[in-house]
């Protein structure tokens, strides 16, 4: 993958038409924000552009996606945003794996699958890179684009809370608010809204908290039974993963979610001095330093023992 | 109270010496951040300055307060920060009620008790006003001052989440990060750390959630018994007040906390279209539009009925 600058990426986008913008499967706020901001800005220039994802976009992002009408055309240029690896394309985008023209990303683990790419691991959100590209393009930032960029930054930095939030994250967010980004609404929807089912699931999950290694490791379980009783779905349980690491003294918070196929989905959140990506990497997973995940097969007890043992090794504590 | 500009307030501070800076009782991050930022900046200019509060400063603010050695002197100038009303001085500062020279505040409800004052209800945090005064004073912003201002802004805006967070809040925060503010540490300590006792109290409180008015009102109870079982103290229970309003569809979230004297402390959080300050005002309380409080006497059932009835009236729903 040949590296390009912000300016070169902007020029490449301006030079092309009939562009598709690919997001990773299970799209999050940063992927969606990047794709729709770029789409809206390029359409304003008269281009045909379509964001694409293998999975449906969750309804809560409707304020970004609802006014972008679908377009179909002969694809001439393929762009990816916030996409680290072709494994994350998902079934529907499989066909584009070997023909990505431009990759815009902020994951240090990016596998360089595109012809040209700009990857900045220092950017808290990929939306910060997109904001700079829009600026270099001279694009007009309308309220929808402002909402999309703001959404990308706030979701990937945990509402500006995580260590990946830099002064630049805050400043670009402020610029977007000047352009009409609905900061309070977006933050409320993304971080301050729980369904009743989520509340019920949380109640049940809280009862399962266990501590290891003198309180440095905490686990929480989300079983199929809990989801059944509470009526919660996948998206309801996302926030539960942040609970164990929030407990005072905990360096590694581990959420163990029972999946349909007898395997367990691990979500790990760690303090700055523990690399969760390396721990999950032992089981073939990955992610960021402070937040990572993996799948482990076995009984609930085996899976818990395995992941706790690896975390204890990384922290240097006895379990 | 005669109104002054940022520049005039800066000049008044520069002209005086032997300055005490008063915080409200039960001091929060904004009061503490303002007082210690101002103190540190004025001491750098060779002045004698002391922040004062009727209540002890919680230990979690040690990164701001620990390096400020106490000074004693004949008081010549009295400043208040983030202080809306002399009722909030507390016992130990009672003596200064009628001799405040300069009031720096952001509460629209400020009772104009000082000789001179600057009150900007548009500032999400009082620390934003203090940052501008420091700038007008030409003060050097060292990492401690940066931490103090950042703390004020992030705590009063709920980690930049509430509607009172403006583009200016984000920009001043970014400036403070450039000057060394430890944003990730501060946000983790203030918003992402729960004691085990708090976790236990939360489990118990969650079981008490009740809905009224077709789900538009939710209440949660924190009883003395819950605190006893969980071992939680006052500060552990603060965050619980945000839970009921987070539930999908809830416009008014009400926390009812049993106090020693048989009375109940109400904490209310509302969506933008409901004025919690007006609802709590009916019972002699007050606060901001989105977050307010009051005390109500009676049995638990009576208190809940009364506050729910007022909230329902404001929302326009049946209970």
Describe this structure in words.
- The structure is a homodimer of 319-residue chains.
- Chain A has 319 residues and is α/β, with parallel strands linked by helices.
- Chain A folds into 2 domains: 2-191, inorganic pyrophosphatase (n-terminal core); 196-315, Diaminopimelate Epimerase, Chain A, domain 1 (Roll).
- The first copy, chain A, contains 13 helices and 12 strands.
- In chain A, the strands form 2 sheets. Chain A has a 6-stranded parallel β-sheet with strand order 1-6-5-4-2-3, with helices on one face. Chain A has a 6-stranded mixed β-sheet with strand order 7-8-9-10-12-11, with helices on both faces.
- In chain A, a hairpin with a 3-residue loop joins β11 and β12 (291-297).
- The longest helix of chain A has 16 residues, at 29-44.
- The first copy, chain A, is globular and about 60 Å long.
- Chain A starts with a strand and ends with a helix.
- The mean pLDDT of chain A is 95.
- At the A-B interface, α6, α7 and α8 of A face α6, α7 and α8 of B.
Task: Write the topology of this structure.
The structure is a homodimer of 319-residue chains.
Chain A: E1 2-3, H1 6-15, E2 19-22, H2 29-44, E3 49-52, H3 62-65, E4 77-81, E5 102-105, E6 116-119, H4 126-137, H5 143-156, H6 167-178, H7 183-191, H8 196-206, E7 210-212, E8 217-222, H9 224-230, H10 234-237, H11 243-246, E9 252-258, E10 263-270, H12 276-281, E11 286-287, E12 291-297, H13 300-315
Parallel strand pairs in A: 1-6, 2-3, 2-4, 4-5, 5-6, 8-9
Antiparallel strand pairs in A: 7-8, 9-10, 10-12, 11-12
Helix pairs in contact in A: 1-4, 2-4, 2-5, 4-5, 5-6, 5-7, 8-9
């Amino acid at each position: 993958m040949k590296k390009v600058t912000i300016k070169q990426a902007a020029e490449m986008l301006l030079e092309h038409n009939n562009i598709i913008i690919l997001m990773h499967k299970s799209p999050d706020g940063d992927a969606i924000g990047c794709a729709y901001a770029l789409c809206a800005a390029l359409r304003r220039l008269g281009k045909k552009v379509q964001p694409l994802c293998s999975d449906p976009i969750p309804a809560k992002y409707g304020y970004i996606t609802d006014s972008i009408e679908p377009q179909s055309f002969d694809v001439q240029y393929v762009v990816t945003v916030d996409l680290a690896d072709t494994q994350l394309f998902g079934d529907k985008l499989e066909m584009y794996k070997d023909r990505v023209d431009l990759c815009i990303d902020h994951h240090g683990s990016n596998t360089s699958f595109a012809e040209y790419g700009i990857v900045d691991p220092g950017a808290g959100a990929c939306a910060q890179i997109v904001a700079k590209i829009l600026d270099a393009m001279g694009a007009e930032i309308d309220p929808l684009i402002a909402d999309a960029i703001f959404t990308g930054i706030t979701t990937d930095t945990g509402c500006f809370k995580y260590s990946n939030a830099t002064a630049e994250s805050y400043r670009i967010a402020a610029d977007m608010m000047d352009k009409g980004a609905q900061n309070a609404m977006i933050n409320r929807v993304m971080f301050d809204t729980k369904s009743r089912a989520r509340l019920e699931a949380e109640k049940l999950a809280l009862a399962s908290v266990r501590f290891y290694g003198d309180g440095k490791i905490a686990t929480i379980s989300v079983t199929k039974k809990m989801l059944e009783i509470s009526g919660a779905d996948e998206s309801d349980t996302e926030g539960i993963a942040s609970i164990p690491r929030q407990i005072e003294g905990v360096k590694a918070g581990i959420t163990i979610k029972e999946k349909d196929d007898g395997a367990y989905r691990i979500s790990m959140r760690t303090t700055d001095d523990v690399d969760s990506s390396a721990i999950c990497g032992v089981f073939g997973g990955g992610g960021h330093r402070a937040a990572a995940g993996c799948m482990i097969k076995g009984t609930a007890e085996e899976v818990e023992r395995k992941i706790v043992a690896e975390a204890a090794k990384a922290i240097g504590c006895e379990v």
